[in-house]
């Protein structure tokens, strides 16, 4: 039977129900799926040697004849050995297989085979262990570059490679060319058939590079087209035009003068808001760079035009804090600011909702969850989200939908305190304009950061005591209280998909917040005021603990990463992170941002019992720089983009080929190409662009993010 791209995997030889189910687990149902399932690595099996020529310890293919019947022996339960001698004209090699008893039937004395593996020893004592092998006259996986695929139980690499080899041979020419010819020509991209063949079974390293380049480009190109389409669709609707205001009127409300960077971003926002097009802007700035004030400016501009604003924070704690900051900035101008969160009493909520509906509140601050259900606004014209990378593209669109009135889109301002590596920002926020606050307010002294081991614990406690004696306050951060991490603990970096492996028993006792706070209070600091906060505490208790700390009524606050986002207690000048190796670099940087907010020299102490050199090198980065961008780029290098925001938090389709940390150049090229194509055909309506549109739709639909 002729295979097509739509043929099911059961049409392939050797695939019955069991293997089909295994393949299904890998997302492979058809021949087309197999062709699109790319190797994660390759083995260079091109070099074929005699036994004597084989370099010691490096894997190559060795051509040799099996000289005897394989000998099989059972060492003990669960350990079987199969040994066989193989020879060529000049030398002998003794080959051992562990627990592969089937090989005794596959190795026939007198036949010549290619064995792929490393030869150990020399002279008469050459050995190989568990080599891959095949008969010289049935060569498929030796003498070439061999793909290594991600696998699952019941599906071996040889099985998968055999399947893709067949699919490549019979069906690669059936793959439709979806990239427009002009794009391929301009960017020197290989044809689709060549790319499919060479990504699976590369003819050479150069051919693999060409194939890879095309596939990466292709993926990023469709992604860029998709994001650009999303943006264009939004821009079709007009935005409310706010009235221009003299900036000085706002500056008079502030207790400080804005930095140059803040002024620049304010001007960019003012230009957006008075342009008549809906603003869609990301304000990116390191911890403490002063993003809140910029958001206040936008809300002020809205109120001056008689339009309401909503500000969303990822946690109630942060919403509470924003409320206070915003009230501080804006009440002087007569703006009415209110809070709306899930933990408020029903009656209070009703009151706030009514006031939003009749327009007597100018700015509401709340959590995402609250604002998405059943809140009516008199005239919502500006939506501000803080830390929005925790919300996906989808939710962002949903939110924007709220304020649509008379066919107009609300303005959207997104603030991100997590410095997102530029490459990733380009992709995630490809549909946003980006402003960067790249300057800290004056008078900040950089936080001194130390990486220390358990042996320093007593000295650290002494140091803590000294800070408290001087009137300061201290944070102590521990990994989450429990294994399940839902509301607020370790939300970005340590979700299920990428939490570091559990430490081996006895490795280090993880400091759990509640127990540790008790221990500190009772045994170490009986004379100091110790409190604790974590995501599992009741919101009221959480708030009370935070408020007490902010008011200086607590000396030491033991906490999970709930304090990571935005909490502002300038009097705190020391943060101690327990089990620091359990956190991502960006997250540690974020935590460090909790101190150094006042006029005192501040300290961050990273404590870990982990002596792994890689771990220490990773953490060392924090002691060497306070540049959030550099830190996040390191993080991205070490963890990979999938890990960066946790599983699919960014709401983007999963990329199969593109490695965001490394592919900046191709990314730029792909974005330019997408821009150019859309300039000539904004809705991709021309027949020759049909394939592009289909691929874009498929890419986004797979993720449930509709393009229509
Ligand atoms: P983030 O960007 O992390 O949200 P915030 O907006 O919370 O930063 O600002 C951090 C602190 O710096 C706040 O206490 C804020 O009042 C203060 N701040 C902001 N801008 C300035 C400025 N231009 N000069 C002095 N202090 C400022
Ligand atoms: Mg902030």
Automatic annotation (TrEMBL):
InterPro entries: ATP-dep_DNA_helicase_RecG (IPR004609), DEAD/DEAH_box_helicase_dom (IPR011545), Helicase_ATP-bd (IPR014001), Helicase_C-like (IPR001650), NA-bd_OB-fold (IPR012340), P-loop_NTPase (IPR027417), RecG/Mfd (IPR047112), RecG_dom3_C (IPR045562). Transmembrane segments: none annotated. CDD domains: DEXHc_RecG, RecG_wedge_OBF. Keywords: ATP-binding, DNA damage, DNA recombination, DNA repair, DNA-binding, Helicase, Hydrolase, Isomerase, Nucleotide-binding. It holds the Pfam family RecG_wedge. It catalyses: ATP + H2O = ADP + phosphate + H(+); Couples ATP hydrolysis with the unwinding of duplex DNA by translocating in the 3'-5' direction. It is an enzyme of class 5 (isomerase). SUPFAM superfamilies: Nucleic acid-binding proteins, P-loop containing nucleoside triphosphate hydrolases. Its EC number is 5.6.2.4. Residues 272-437 form the Helicase ATP-binding domain. The keyword DNA damage applies. Residues 473-637 form the Helicase C-terminal domain. The keyword Nucleus does not apply. One of its GO terms (biological process) is DNA repair. GO terms for molecular function: 3'-5' DNA helicase activity; ATP binding; DNA binding; hydrolase activity. Belongs to the helicase family. RecG subfamily. Plays a critical role in recombination and DNA repair. Helps process Holliday junction intermediates to mature products by catalyzing branch migration. Has replication fork regression activity, unwinds stalled or blocked replication forks to make a HJ that can be resolved. Has a DNA unwinding activity characteristic of a DNA helicase with 3'-5' polarity. NCBIfam families: PRK10917.1-3 (NF008165), PRK10917.2-2 (NF008168), recG (TIGR00643). This is ATP-dependent DNA helicase RecG. The lineage of its organism: Bacteria, Bacillati, Bacillota, Clostridia, Eubacteriales.
């Amino acid at each position: 039977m002729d295979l097509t791209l739509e043929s099911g995997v059961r049409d392939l030889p050797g695939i019955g129900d069991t293997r089909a189910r295994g393949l299904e687990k890998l997302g492979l149902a058809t021949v087309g799926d197999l062709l699109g399932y790319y190797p994660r690595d390759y083995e260079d099996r091109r070099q074929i040697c005699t036994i004597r020529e084989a370099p010691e310890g490096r894997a190559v293919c060795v051509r040799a004849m099996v000289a005897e019947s394989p000998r099989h022996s059972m060492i003990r339960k669960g350990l079987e050995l199969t040994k066989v001698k193989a020879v060529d004209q000049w030398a002998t090699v003794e080959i051992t297989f562990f627990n592969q008893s089937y090989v005794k039937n596959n190795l026939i004395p007198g036949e010549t085979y290619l064995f792929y593996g490393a030869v150990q020893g020399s002279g008469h004592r050459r050995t190989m262990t568990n080599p891959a092998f095949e008969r010289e006259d049935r060569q498929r996986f030796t003498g070439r570059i061999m793909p290594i695929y991600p696998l699952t139980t019941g599906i071996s690499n040889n099985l998968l490679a055999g399947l893709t080899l067949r699919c490549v041979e019979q069906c690669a020419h059936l793959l439709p060319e979806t990239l427009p010819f002009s794009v391929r020509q301009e960017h020197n991209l290989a044809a689709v058939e060549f790319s499919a063949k060479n990504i699976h079974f590369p003819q050479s390293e150069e051919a693999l590079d060409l194939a890879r380049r095309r596939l990466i480009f292709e993926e990023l190109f469709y992604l860029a087209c998709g994001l650009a389409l999303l943006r264009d669709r939004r821009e079709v609707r007009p935005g409310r035009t706010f009235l221009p205001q003299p900036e000085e009127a706002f500056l008079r409300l502030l207790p400080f003068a804005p930095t140059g960077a803040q002024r620049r971003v304010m001007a960019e926002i003012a230009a957006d808001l008075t342009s008549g097009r809906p603003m869609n802007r990301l304000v990116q700035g390191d911890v403490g760079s002063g993003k809140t004030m910029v958001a206040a400016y936008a809300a002020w501009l809205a109120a001056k035009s008689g339009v309401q604003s909503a500000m969303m924070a990822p946690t109630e704690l942060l919403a509470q804090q924003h409320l206070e900051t915003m009230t501080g900035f804006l009440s002087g101008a007569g703006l009415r600011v209110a809070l709306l969160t899930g933990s408020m009493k029903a009656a209070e909520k009703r009151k706030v909702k009514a006031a939003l509906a009749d327009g007597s509140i100018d700015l509401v601050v709340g959590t995402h969850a609250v604002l998405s259900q059943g809140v009516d606004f008199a005239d919502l014209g500006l939506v501000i989200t803080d830390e929005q990378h925790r919300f996906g593209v989808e939710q962002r669109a949903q939110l924007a939908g709220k304020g649509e009135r008379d066919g107009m889109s609300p303005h959207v301002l997104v603030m991100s305190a997590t410095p997102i590596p530029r490459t990733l920002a380009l992709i995630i926020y490809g549909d946003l304009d980006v402003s960067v606050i790249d300057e800290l307010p004056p008078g900040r002294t950089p936080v001194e950061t130390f990486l220390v081991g358990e042996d320093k614990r007593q000295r650290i406690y002494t140091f803590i005591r000294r800070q408290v004696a001087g009137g300061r306050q201290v944070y102590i951060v521990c990994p989450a209280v429990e294994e399940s991490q839902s509301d607020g603990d370790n939300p970005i970096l340590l979700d299920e998909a990428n939490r570091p492996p559990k430490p081996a028993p006895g490795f280090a006792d993880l400091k759990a917040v509640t127990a540790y706070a008790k221990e500190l209070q009772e045994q170490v600091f009986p004379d100091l005021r110790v409190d604790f906060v974590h995501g599992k505490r009741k919101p009221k208790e959480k708030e009370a603990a935070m408020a007490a700390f902010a008011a200086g009524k607590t000396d030491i606050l033991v906490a999970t990463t709930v304090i990571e986002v935005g909490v502002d207690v300038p009097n705190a000048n020391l943060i101690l992170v327990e089990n620091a190796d359990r956190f991502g670099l960006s997250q540690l940087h974020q935590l460090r941002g909790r101190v150094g907010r006042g006029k005192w020299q501040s300290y961050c102490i990273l404590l870990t019992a982990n002596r792994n050199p890689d771990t220490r090198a990773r953490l060392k980065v924090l002691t060497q720089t306070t540049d959030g961008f550099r830190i996040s780029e390191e993080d991205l290098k070490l963890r990979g983009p999938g890990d960066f925001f946790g599983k699919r938090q960014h709401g983007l389709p999963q990329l199969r080929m593109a490695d965001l940390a490394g592919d900046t150049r191709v990314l730029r090229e792909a974005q330019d190409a997408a821009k150019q194509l859309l300039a000539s055909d904004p809705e991709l309506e021309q027949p020759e662009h049909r394939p592009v549109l289909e691929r874009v739709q498929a890419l986004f639909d797979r993720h449930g993010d509709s393009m229509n």
